[in-house]
Amino acid sequence: MEKTIKTKPTVLSVLSMALLTFFTIFFIFPFYWIVTGSFKIQNVAVQVPPEWFPLAPTLDNWIALFKTPVLRWTFNSFFVATCTLVIVCTTAAMAGYALAKIKFPGRNFVFWLFIAAMALPKQVIMIPLFTILVKLNWINTYQALILPAVGWPFGVFLMKQFTQTVPSELIEAAKIDGCTQMGIFTRIIVPLVKPGLGALAIFTFMNSWNDYFMQLILTRSVTMQTLPLGVALLKAEFTTPYGVLMAGATLASLPMIIIFIVFQKYFTQGITMGAVKG
Amino acid sequence: MAQITNVAAKNKTPRKKFRLSYEAKDWIAGYLFILPVMIFFIGFIVIPMARGIYVSFFDYSLRNFEFIGLDNYIHLFGDEIFLKGVRNTLFIVIGSVPIVVLFALFVSVNIYKKAAAVRSFFRGVFYLPAICSVVSVTVVWGFIYEPNYGVLNYLLSAVGTEKISWLADARFALPAVMAVLITTAVGQPIILYVAALGNVPVSYIEAAEIDGATNWEVFQNITWPMLMPTSLYIIIITTINSFQCFSLIQLLTSGGPAYNTSTIMYQVYERAFTLNQYGLSSAMGVILAIIIMIISIIQYKFFGSDIEY
Fold first, then answer.
1. What is the pLDDT of residue B1?
2. B248: nearest CA partner in chain A
């Protein structure tokens, strides 16, 4: 009985599929437009009616793009994101273990402090953080782009959630065998929370790679700028041809798209684990 | 078990060498393990936050640093531009949050039963704008919205519409920015909803179907209530993100035309970095934080749910 209900295509389900298809095209189109736009010469890019598919693809835009400091910007983005990832994963895994499995006075207080800080908007801290970094003489340095991101407690929260799934018996057994806390952490916890670390690594990398606001206020010189800032800089120069801008935009987004396609499982896990449990 | 008590007993008896109890060792280990994160947390979150609240009571600019009590706050509540920013921000939040939630729900309900590969494809498509750099997103949307050769006006010209300056026309600029914001905001909710829908026990739904319930009744009475904690979480994070909308605005319109797309967050930036009014800027940040906190609490109470962290 219920099988006939499910297989019978109703008007509603046909309509839903049509709408879903429309939305899918709507979401894919901008990225199709960026990528194809990067292969069009200027007067083709701005022609009306638009050329839906580049009939005479050219690499000129990409060649022009690589005449700007784009390699330096890409390196900066990559370096900053990688350093942030390493420090965040290390410190968050350690704190996550302590908050999930080690009993010490003030543990709950610390945990709720992190939760409260996560709920507060970042904006309150941006301007004072900026003035503090000015006083430290850190403006336009790599450490300014890397270290403040480590303080953000989302990673600790995520790693606590993952570490809680490790059976406490394993830890007790290791203690009886004379394993130190450091040994328990490196030999038992880290191997077992690898999926969590994977998710955290990807999110940290993505947040750093895609950051705009912090990098905007903390950098000064063209050589310290990251890829998003560099592309924004090209955009602000009105003489930049659209194709070059599109090539820059493609380059700024491509790494994350590839990482997403390869590691979609970690994204999904991280988002669901970081959100609602139980 | 016997072994453990035995060890514990041994530790209580005084020894010739000073030894810490297991409990004390755990304490020290616990503190050492959270120490690295704490240093960053206190240095880059707690201290700036405290300082942000502190300087919001000062007339603080490049030349001045003088205590003025609540004057910054009083000034802001009579400041036309700031109030416009508040209105724009509320407009964005109230307009985009329901659309994001309904859109995510619509897509999720239609894809969660499909084969894993199909599901991944759709999840990926709708998450695409969220994983791409905001700069790339604004580059392409700026191009699509371009009045003379943008794709949008070209498509609309087919139905006879005049050329519209989407981002420069006071009537359209804010909705145009919101549309982009919504595309970047639906990805995460869809992933959450698909996961939550997968957790709704099939037996409940089958039982209801056998009893003759329609699809809509199943959704209304079984699926929706079970999605409630997820919905609450999605509403709260989408609200917070919409309140904090900055980069899209800075890159698409710079708050214009005539402050029509200027939000609180954009003004926090503008006051501090183009006008050097750090005190006023911090006061705005504090007000924004308070608004977000109040709204999160209301949402939490209103949807009265038992979400456990």
1. 42
2. A212
- A106-128: pLDDT as tens digits: 899 998 888 888 777 676 788 88
Between CA A128 and CA A136, with CA A130 as vertex, the angle to 5 degrees is 105
Distance, in Å, from the CA atom of B279 to the CA atom of B61, rounded to the nearest integer, reads: 7
pLDDT at A3 over 50: no
Interface check A150 vs B, CB under 8 A? yes
Q: From residue A177, how far is each of A104, A187, B44 by CA, in Å?
A: 22, 13, 39
Residue B240 maps to which CATH number?
1.10.3720.10
Question: Tens digit of pLDDT for each residue in B246-296?
Answer: 889 999 998 878 888 999 989 998 888 888 888 899 999 999 988 888 888
Residue-by-residue DSSP string for B191-236:
HHHHHHHHTS-HHHHHHHHHTT--HHHHIIIIIHHHHHHHHHHHHH
Task: Supply the mean pLDDT for chain B.
Answer: 85
Contact yes or no for B251 and A212 at CB 8 A: yes
For A68-275, CATH number?
Answer: 1.10.3720.10
Outline which parts of chain A fall under CATH 1.10.3720.10. Answer: 68-275
Reported ipTM: 0.86
Residue B304: pLDDT band (50, 70, 90) is low
- What DSSP character marks residue A178? T
Predicted confidence band of residue B88 (pLDDT cuts 50, 70, 90): very high
Identify whether the C-beta of residue A230 lies closer than 8 Å to the C-beta of residue A80: no
A107 min Cα distance to partner chain B (Å) = 8
Q: Which of residues 25-84 of A touch B (CB under 8 A)?
A: 26-28, 30-31, 33-34, 37, 46-50
Q: Domains in chain B: how many in total? A: 1
Distance separating alpha carbons of residues B25 and A178, to the nearest angstrom: 13
Alpha helices in A120-212 (DSSP H): 123-135, 142-150, 154-164, 168-176, 181-184, 190-192, 194-210
